[in-house]
Design brief:
2 domains; Leucine-rich repeat, LRR (right-handed beta-alpha superhelix); 5-stranded mixed β-sheet; 7-stranded parallel β-sheet; 22% helix; alpha/beta; 8 helices
């Protein structure tokens, strides 16, 4: 969960544990005017724990500050870890002009958490076999190649949430593309996503769903993408939808049930 009380509660708590020899910090932090970087970790945590011999972390700090003229880059953040010689550190800095927000994700590699949240187009890649739940967030569109990278990086991904209202640039849905196979995906949340991402996952020319799926999506978009539940190129993947979660829909038409033959409709 996000916390706004990192400086008030978490740092004092860590300072009281001065005898720790091993520490792993997994935090999502909201701060007013700066990211958590290597300098911060060294000055505010490591220097207070003289017996510490193993320190790993996975920290995503978000901030409302947004300065297009003078903001730290990935390289700037990476340089703050120059004294962390025993760890492989990954940094990813993102800025969201529309929302006037920014975030910085720093973590020790190999990655140890089952969650990887708020991935943007700046995702540095890697292999994360321990991750089961992923969320994607950006103000720029996610293209087909990006989803291919996500599947390769998270081969055991079971849950995926996409937050992106930006339409894809590549609209040629019938072109030859590598079909992305999701072997373990069982929950897909597109309730805050543009309809292009619903097409991305339902078109059999782009995606192969190999597991039964819990689908969260606006019914109106589902109706559009499937051409009023008649489109052949979405029929195969729709047959993998085991549970469809509806909201503010009193009654579904009969042709919906004919298209989603094995689907249970639930109220979200």
């Amino acid at each position: 969960m996000n916390t706004d009380l990192y400086d008030e509660l978490i740092l004092p708590l860590v300072h009281r544990m001065f005898n720790l020899e091993q520490l792993h910090l997994h935090l999502v932090v909201n701060r007013d005017n700066e990211f958590i970087d290597g300098n911060h970790l060294k000055n505010n945590i490591i220097n207070h724990m003289l017996r510490l011999n193993k320190f790993t972390f996975n920290i995503r700090s978000s901030s409302r500050f947004y300065n297009q003229i003078n903001f730290p880059s990935n390289n700037d953040i990476q340089k703050t870890f120059k004294d962390f010689q025993n760890n492989q550190i990954t940094c990813c800095v993102d800025y969201f002009p529309k929302a006037l927000k920014s975030q910085c994700h720093i973590y020790s590699y190999p990655y140890q958490s089952k969650y990887y949240d708020n991935i943007t187009n700046n995702f540095p890649g890697g292999l994360f076999k321990c991750v089961r739940e992923v969320s994607l967030l950006d103000e720029r569109p996610f293209e087909h190649e990006f989803f291919f990278q996500i599947q390769k990086s998270f081969p055991l991904m079971e849950k995926l949430k996409i937050i992106n209202q930006k339409s894809q640039n590549n609209k040629r849905f019938n072109q030859d593309l590598s079909i992305i196979k999701y072997s373990y995906l069982s929950q897909l949340d597109l309730s805050k996503a543009h309809k292009d991402y619903l097409q991305q996952f339902l078109l059999n020319t782009r995606t192969c769903l190999q597991n039964y799926l819990h689908l969260y999506v606006d019914y109106r978009l589902l109706k559009q993408v499937t051409h009023n539940f008649t489109r052949d190129t979405t029929r195969t993947n729709c047959s993998k939808v085991k549970y469809f979660y509806r909201n503010n829909i009193n009654q579904l038409p009969k042709y919906f049930k004919g298209y989603f033959r094995s689907t249970n409709v639930l109220t979200s």
